[in-house]
Automatic annotation (TrEMBL):
This is NADH-quinone oxidoreductase subunit K. One of its GO terms (molecular function) is oxidoreductase activity. The chain crosses the membrane at residues 6-23, 28-49, 61-87. The gene is nuoK. It comes from Xylanibacter muris. Pfam families: Oxidored_q2. Signal peptide: none annotated. Its EC number is 7.1.1.-. NDH-1 is composed of 14 different subunits. Subunits NuoA, H, J, K, L, M, N constitute the membrane sector of the complex. Gene3D superfamilies: 1.10.287.3510. NDH-1 shuttles electrons from NADH, via FMN and iron-sulfur (Fe-S) centers, to quinones in the respiratory chain. The immediate electron acceptor for the enzyme in this species is believed to be a menaquinone. Couples the redox reaction to proton translocation (for every two electrons transferred, four hydrogen ions are translocated across the cytoplasmic membrane), and thus conserves the redox energy in a proton gradient.
Length: 103
């Protein structure tokens, strides 16, 4: 059985990779993928804390993870629709092209 601390280390690693990718990338799709990495790190934390706090089998953390996965799927669909609309208007998926948007 894998110790709970390994899940926390994996979650922290995924979180920092996601934050680093979001800060350094200029491509909208890469930024969306980085946000998804951060959300997956949160899901791993929910499951790990559930395992640590409720070792007898209660599933509160797992239900929160399922809810979070559903919310992140909806967020991804909306974000991809926005990125497609930006690409149609500016013919680029770089963040620099959006800076010139008019009010």
């Amino acid at each position: 059985m894998v110790p709970v601390e390994f899940y926390f280390v994996l979650s922290a690693l995924l979180f920092f990779i996601g934050v680093f990718g979001f800060v350094t990338r200029r491509n909208l799709i890469a930024m969306l993928i980085s946000i998804e990495l951060v959300l997956n790190a949160v899901d791993i934390n929910f499951a790990a804390f559930n395992r640590m706090l409720f070792p007898d089998g209660q599933l509160e953390g797992f239900f929160m993870s399922l809810f979070s996965i559903g919310v992140s799927a909806a967020e991804s669909a909306v974000a991809i629709a926005i990125i497609i609309n930006v690409y149609r208007n500016f013919h680029s998926d770089q963040v620099n092209s959006i800076e010139n948007m008019k009010y």
